[in-house]
Amino acid sequence: MNYEAGKYRKSRQRDRILEILQNTKSHPTADSIYIMLKEEFPDLSLGNVYRNLNILVETGMIQRLDFGSTFNRFDGNCNPHPHFICERCNSVIDLEMDEGFDPAKFIKDIDGKVVKNFTLEIFGICEKCKH
Amino acid sequence: MNYEAGKYRKSRQRDRILEILQNTKSHPTADSIYIMLKEEFPDLSLGNVYRNLNILVETGMIQRLDFGSTFNRFDGNCNPHPHFICERCNSVIDLEMDEGFDPAKFIKDIDGKVVKNFTLEIFGICEKCKH
DNA sequence: GTTCATGCAAATCGTTTGCACAATG
DNA sequence: CATTGTGCAAACGATTTGCATGAAC
Hints:
The structure is a homodimer. Chain A is an alpha+beta fold. The first copy, chain A, has helices at residues 12-22, 30-38, 46-58, and strands at 63-65, 73-75, 83-86, 92-94, 96-97, 107-108, 114-125. The first copy, chain A, has two domains: 12-75, Winged helix-like DNA-binding domain superfamily/Winged helix DNA-binding domain (Arc Repressor Mutant, subunit A, Orthogonal Bundle), CATH 1.10.10; 83-130. In chain A, helix 1 (12-22) crosses helix 3 (46-58) and helix 2 (30-38) packs across helix 3. The two termini of chain A are 36 Å apart.
C-alpha cells in the first residue's frame, strides 16, 4: 500500500481488493469482487467493498471505468463523435474529428476483432472555466 | 418519425423528446428533458420520458452517452488505455495504443481547452464471439 | 376493437451512509 | 486510546415496471 499522508490505515480487505485488481484483466464490478472475497472473509459486506474501491480510486491506485447505466445523457446526433467533459461545470461539448480519423487504426491487437463503434470522451477544463 | 416495421405508434410526447434532442447541443439528462416538457404536458411522467428515450435509442434515432455513476468496473492499471467491449459476452478487454498516440491531436476545436485525460472505448465483437 | 402509449406508484438495482462495534497504530 | 475500518441495515438516486386508463390506427 502506498497511501499519502497516512490518511488511511492498512486493512486486510482493502489489500486483497487491490491485489485482485492488480492481478486480473477482467475489470471486475464491485459485486464480483465481493463474491470473490466472500469465501475469504465470510462476513464481508458489499458496502465495504464499495468503500474500499472508492478509497483506492481516490488514492490513485486503481481506475474507475464508467460504462454506467444510470445518469445517462442523450444525444440527437447518432454519428460517433467525441465529447469534451468539463470537470468544473460538467458541461458536455460535442467535438469534431479530423476527416477520416479512425482511432482503431492506432490500437495494437485490434486485428481479429469486429469494430462497430467507439466512444471517445476527453476530460478537462473548458474555455469558460479555464479561469 | 421513422420507425421500422410499424412496431411503434406516433406519440406527441415522443415526437417532442426527439425534437428537443435534435435541436440542442446540451446533451440533456432524462430529468432535464422531463422538466423542459412538463409545461407543455402538465401531467407528463418521468417514467414515460425514460420509456421514450429507450425507444428512441432502440430505433437508432438518438444516442445514449454513458458517463454513469453506477455499474462501474474497476481497473488496476491506472494509465489511460483504451478498452474493447464485446457486445456479445460483455467482456472488457484492455487495448494498447501505438506509442505517442494522442487522440486529442485529431480533434478540431480542442485549442483553448485544457485536456487532462480521456477514455476511448471501442465496441464490437471479440475474437471468441465472432462465431 | 386491438394494440400501443400514458400516468401513477411501487419496485428494482447499483451505490452510499449512519451507526455501534472491532481493529489499527 | 484516538482514530480508522467493519458489518449491517436503512437510505439514496437513477431507472424500470405493473397496472388501469387513454390514444392511435
